Every structure is written in structure tokens, then in C-alpha cells.
Amino acid sequence: MLEVDLLITNINIASMVYPDYNLENHSDKEDTYGAIYHASVAVTAGKITAILTDNQPLIKAKKTIDGAGGWLTPGLIDCHNHLIWGGNRAREFESRLQGVSYAEISKQGGGIASTVKATREASDSQLKALAEQRLSRLMAEGVTSIEIKSGYGLSLAHEQRLLTIARELADENPIHVKTSLLAAHALPPEFANNQAYIDEICQNIIPHIAKLGLADAVDVFCEGIGFSVAQCEQVFQCAKAHNLPVKGHVEQLSDLKGSLLVAKYQGLSADHIEYLQAVDVPQLKAADTVAVLLPGAFYALQERQLPPIAALRKHRVPMAVATDLNPGTSPQASLRLAMNQACILFGLTPEESLKGVTCGAAQALGMQASKGQIKVGYDADLVLWDIEHPCELSYGVNLVQPSRVFYLGEQR
Hints:
Elements: E1 2-14, E2 35-44, E3 47-52, E4 59-66, E5 71-74, E6 76-78, H1 90-97, H2 102-107, H3 112-121, H4 124-140, E7 143-149, H5 156-172, E8 176-184, H6 194-212, E9 217-222, H7 229-241, E10 247-250, H8 258-264, E11 269-272, H9 281-287, E12 290-293, H10 295-300, H11 309-314, E13 319-321, H12 335-346, H13 350-356, H14 359-364, E14 382-385, H15 392-395, E15 404-407, E16 410-411
Parallel strand pairs: 1-4, 1-5, 6-7, 7-8, 8-9, 9-10, 10-11, 11-12, 12-13
Antiparallel strand pairs: 1-2, 2-3, 5-14, 14-15, 15-16
Helix pairs in contact: 4-5, 6-7, 8-9, 12-13
């Protein structure tokens, strides 16, 4: 008799497990979503220990939950999130609606610079309390893992402060947190030019943060209003020297070939990519780099340039979907909304959208061996939904909430 901590019975499972899960759409309806019907899932010590169907062995469970015929999915993963900041940019939202471009707002001292000022002026407790509110909204939707970026401090002391708060949030909440150092987000006011600040990042910020173990990856904003390809490469070289993987905000507003730079350094992900050219997509595939789609920013900025979805599909580049939660260009604390937007705005199928917040997002954070799929040996981050079919998770906005959410097998 198999003895387990938890047994979830009477469920259908959207396992997101395929022969090659992030490569293709499956036309066979029985394989859609990696579906397993009329099943049970056993959990021990926070891991999935068995997936059982009608011919299951005898189970002795400390706790049994009847799933009432609902669907069990992997815990949702938000792989691009700027969770911690002070202030807000509602006035800029108003200005954009009156015709002022994001680039012009930045030149006038708004944009990221205004959030940096508000963040630096806020206390640790204020920043943490605000971040807790945003985090709770995501967790209520079934998000069990999240990336938290720095990038609104732009100095060693302030970037360290934001990453420390992120680690505290991880310690005090059941959600799994990955942190990214985004010091190369914008030019801070105390520096006269980009190159001087890039030198500071490479000579002081990255080495210090790496020594403290506060970052799981290093990110950059490679854009005309951010940093050049050459400057971002300098950051990537430093990150690699300190054994930190890289990723990039690239091709959001123009085609600077930042995605090719990310691929050159075998980056975890190339994010935004609205201006990525189809001819450059194969290099992402060759580097095993995930394309992270951020429809919330596309929506908020009223963009028209679509990411090259057809080329990503053709070349079988794994796609992730994330909120890009931030105060200026994607003020939405809802991964479920991003799933809907990815379908409506970018033309993803509901299955691709769910892949994007499970197995695709897990790969974008380097967690594809433990999260994002319902598979024996994987972490028991699971969400139970009272739905008839998984496509409902992308179909509506705030129509369906989780019935139960499990973090490493524990319901919180």
C-alpha cells in the first residue's frame, strides 16, 4: 500500500506534459493540455509522488481531498514582475491618454525616473506593505511562483534594499520567489551619462549583490531610452563572470537586436519582443531562450507592433506570458488578465496561454525541472479549478477563481 501525505481524487488533470511540451500545438484533442481524465494525484513531502487513474493501487493518505470533477493545473507562474516600488504614475497614464508618448514622458523626468524617486523616499516597511498587497492579489488567482525584479533603486544601497525585501517576501509567504537584478533599468539622477553608470553596475553593484546571493539572474533594459547593446553586453559579461544567468527587456519599442545579444549569452528569456524580426527568431531557438510575451504593456501603451508569434511557432521557440506588473506601463496585478490579453491581442490559443504561465514560465526562470508541470517528482504547486475545461482560464476576466491552491502540497 502506497502511503502519502495528500491525495487529491476525482479530478481531471491539465498536466502540461507533452513529448516536447513547449514545441508544438497538439491537434489530437485527447492530448490537449496534456490532459489526464478521471485521475488522482498523490503528494508526499511537497512532491508529486504518483498520478493515478482508474486502475490505481491502494493508497493510504494522511489527508484526502475530493476534487469534485474539477480540473487540476500546475501552479501559475508570473515570470516577469516589478513587484516592489513606491508611489504611482496615474498622472502619466492621464498624459498618455492626452497624446504624450512614453518616450517624451521619460525625457521630461517621468517614467522610471519618477518611480525611482518615490521608491528611494519610501521606507522599507512602506515598500514591503505595498508589495504584499500586490502579491496577495496574484496569489489569490493561483500564482504559486513569481519573479521579482529590482530596478527602481538604481544604486547599490537601494538595489540591495529592494532585493532584500523580495527575499523577505519569499520567507514570509508560501509563494516561490526568483529575484532578478535590474540595475540597468534607467540612468539614475546622480550619473551624468549611461556609460559611467554601467561601469558602476559592473564594478560595484553586480559583484556586491552576487556576493550576498540576493539575485538569481541579471536583467537589462536594452532600448533607445534605456541602454545600448554594447552597454548591455558589458553587463552580461559581468553577470556571467559572477555565475549569474541573464535576461533582457528587448525589442519593446525598436529593433536594436537586443534579443540576439540575449541569445548570444544563452539568456533565460527575451522579454517584450514586439519589434523582434522574424529572421532573428531562430537564434532564440538555438540558444534555448524563452520568448516572454507581455500583453499588459502592449495594452497600456496602446502599441500596434505585434510580436512575431507565427515565427515563434514556426521555429518552436517556447513562449511565456507574464504580467509585467509595474507602475507605468503595465499596472495590472492579474496574471489571468494577461492570459486573456495574450489570446485577444496576440492571437495565442488558450492552451498556449496556459503553457505560457506554467511550463513556459518555469523555463523562463530556469525552473523547468521542478515546476510548471504535473509530473511525478515535480513540486506539488497545484491549483484546483471548478471549471468544465481549461480553456475557461483564458476565456474570461475575473469569472473563475481557484477552488484550492497548494504550495508544495500545502493548502494556504
